[in-house]
Amino acid sequence: MAHTLAGRPETATQAKVLKLLRDEGPLSRVELADRLGVSRTTMASEVSRLTELGLAEGAGPAASRGGRRSTLVDLSSDVRFVGVAIGATTVSVALTDGRLTVLGQRSVDMDVRLGPEPVLARALELTHKVLAEHGVTRPAGVGVGVPGPVDFHGGMPVSPPIMPGWDGYPVRDALARELGCPVLLDNDVNVMALGEQHSGVAKAARDFLFVKIGTGIGCGIVVDGQLYRGVDGCAGDIGHIRVEEFGPTCACGNTGCLEAFFGGAALARDALAAARGGRSPALASLLAEKGENGELTGADVAAAVAMGDPYSVQMIRDGGHRVGWVLASLVSFFNPGLIVIGGRVARLGHPLLAEIRGVVYRRSLPLATGNLPVVLSEMGDDAGVVGAAALISDAIFAAP
Amino acid sequence: MAHTLAGRPETATQAKVLKLLRDEGPLSRVELADRLGVSRTTMASEVSRLTELGLAEGAGPAASRGGRRSTLVDLSSDVRFVGVAIGATTVSVALTDGRLTVLGQRSVDMDVRLGPEPVLARALELTHKVLAEHGVTRPAGVGVGVPGPVDFHGGMPVSPPIMPGWDGYPVRDALARELGCPVLLDNDVNVMALGEQHSGVAKAARDFLFVKIGTGIGCGIVVDGQLYRGVDGCAGDIGHIRVEEFGPTCACGNTGCLEAFFGGAALARDALAAARGGRSPALASLLAEKGENGELTGADVAAAVAMGDPYSVQMIRDGGHRVGWVLASLVSFFNPGLIVIGGRVARLGHPLLAEIRGVVYRRSLPLATGNLPVVLSEMGDDAGVVGAAALISDAIFAAP
């Protein structure tokens, strides 16, 4: 069996080599030595050791730079990671190679409110299926994202508002026991930020915010290339920032939270009310198609927007406006170099983006917005699974 | 002359030794070796080199740990830094030793709106006086804080709203030329955060926010022990976060900014209106004492609060409430380990703090506030000058 558990780097230099190869692809020994500021002799022996450990391998001759031809070094083609993205309504599992390219993926619709046992059983089932399809017995590691606050060191959710039954459940250790490999758990937004950093529009950014607008709203914070989790691991919880003194009651118990006004759950609620209340013929006809007890989703609102429904367009504008106010505050506070907007509701696309940009550019300090791109994610659902694989690869490719 | 320009560390280990001695006081060679994880032989030679460079010196025998007695190492008693704190209405200069203990200090009232030439001339005059009083010909370096956004790499203010005439003025280079030593410039809030980190309540904190409520309102952000300046150097500009859709026009041109509602300038404006409008007999009598064209300040409001004036107490409560809303958002976003409230308006003390705490603890994620102290600075005016000295000492004691 080719795909077995890989070794771990034994020195800081070996760890840096692995991350460079993961993020940039094959490099020559000479380039590696130059990039990391070590001698060519040292690099030659570090690369040999990585090869012995089953983490690196040769990849043909490098382009000539004059003098003796150097050989390209690549990550071992045996290295496999798994990324598991547990969302409010879906579970997705992807198998990646060492460079976090997705080799295979499986998703199912599943309500996270069913609790940890059935959801994790399903995630394991998908994982085993994907591994079997690609002839992998044991991956190097598995990263997992869940839609709520996580005690990163403890590997478990902490009082997650939309995940009843998950509080304190040892997700990381339970999965590690079943899979027999290292597992790391983080919240879904942090994981998506890592995905954007590795494969998305944030590739060149050192300090950026990733804003997820899905069922809930959250923010991943990257400072100097590293995820910033905060003192208790709950940084980025912007869904519960107050946008108005009064307003709908939020799942957290307060009123006026951003998430209670916008995000997938609020949008579905408002769409249903508009359909039933006769304020939107487009939403009413979409609701009628679903039969008795049917419900509307963010996707239906997107469909109504595409049909030119004025009420739905106004819902998106109002929501984007409120997200914009919160982001304007965060730009003044944090002065990021880039803001990426992702998550399912973000697929409402340019009308939403235009509204967010309008407020951010008007309301933040001019110095902070002079060079600040606010862009939509281009990764779709991949941000979560690729980011989860990035999370565990960071740990596997870390210095001892 | 004993006090001349000190050398610079030549290795990363030497730099770390200097910062440890600055922050913790004399340590034995053995303790230094253990703390920095280098051999005792290496440490002995690094310390010798620091002594030759005039940066360190012996400080008597260390307490016995069994075996041969070790000698304490201290920073050279010749090292001198200068911290210059330029505020909206004052200029303060302090001379410190290598451990940032203030040896002498001078302050004058001066309006920053007079522009850079007269203000910097005054700052230089105070600096020369303090240096002469302590027999110092040339300090190791000078740190400077100004009340506005700063291009840290360029060493100049950038479009500072309350500093007309200072935009793009090369403050750092002008002072370095006059003083013949290294100079660094940053905004006053960042500098005060460094002061709190070195000598104040934030001494043990790795991730904290320092909130200054003075003429303006701003925030210093420390991430993993390092000041976070943001991509354009303007992180922490929380005075211009919107707290209400409408409200008084701010110096920045927008409406509804926190700073336009609260902070020294807003408080003085509201106090004057209340005194003239007959809403506060206490403020009216304080105003009468100042004669024709007299103005009220934050200090007068503090006096009125002490006299039990209900209108003044309400002003503080309203202001504290608005500051609390903004900080609650930042706690949800940033999950800091500590919030320190400083600046002149913060001297209104516990009524203000109580209001801020009330909102923060009620409105932020419980996980983020479980262990979150919100405290008043105990450094008073020293935070600015000590922090400015800390700023330049960080650069002088940095690895080459």
Q: Biggest interface: chains and residue counts?
A: A-B, 44 and 44 residues
Large-scale geometry of chain A = globular
State the low-pLDDT regions of chain A, or none.
none
Total number of strands of chain A = 15
Structural class of chain A: alpha/beta
Overall mean confidence score, pLDDT of chain A? 91
CATH architect. name of the largest domain in chain A: 2-Layer Sandwich
Spatial ordering of strands, largest sheet of chain A: 6-5-4-7-10
Please provide the ordered H/E string of secondary-structure elements of chain A. HEHHEEEEEHEEEHEHEEEHHHHHEHHEH
The CATH homologous superfamily of the largest domain in chain A corresponds to ATPase, nucleotide binding domain
From the N-terminal CA to the C-terminal CA of chain A, the straight-line distance is 27 Å
Organism (chains A, B): Jiangella aurantiaca
Family (chains A, B): Belongs to the ROK (NagC/XylR) family.
Protein name (chains A, B): ROK family transcriptional regulator
